[in-house]
Amino acid sequence: MTRGPLLVVFAKRPEAGLVKTRLCPPFTPEQAAAFYARLLADVLDASVSAAEALGLTLRLAIHPASGVEDPGVEVPARVQRVAQVGADLSERMEAAMQAAGQEGYGPILIRGSDSPALGQVPLARALAALEQVDVVVCPDVDGGYNLVGARRAVAGLFDHEMSTADVLRQTVERARGLGLQVALLPRGFDIDTAADLRLLRDSPEAMRTCSRTCAYLDEHGLWPGSR
Known about the structure:
By secondary structure, the chain is α/β, with parallel strands linked by helices.
């Protein structure tokens, strides 16, 4: 049975010392976790809006597995919750894509939870691109990417090292090595370090999307240059 397109939000349960550790310093581990909780909540709301407009089923894939029952943030009712499965990010993304394919979903989009500017427009562009090519990727400014999609589940697409400054190139090369056509979307950004908050501040779309996130940064004086 064909179920149509699926958007999977990859996330972690917000726990001090386990999320957004590259923000520390200047953040404390507790501030980094609180910041990420608000960012994740904003991203889920934006993803719900985009899913409703684009006809996407929406799924939250969370790590660790205990986050399915206790995600640490309010998850909208229409969002499915599943555990990430695998020893590392590569295995977990592979498992998520294969599970979606086995369930009859396609195209399959996987997005990060720390990319505040990734809203309806880039998701619509990704779906449009997948009408012409096999794989679509939205690059980040740091050499990674915040969204990857495939027309159908592809075995081995993530069979390389992840979370490096070279992961975009490796993913594209891997896809082409599998005989797949690849399209790149206009570049976006994610938030890994305190310096990346300048990208958030300079993006009107991201600022509108991330009201909880921006309010937290305002309240605690955590914007770059505010200390």
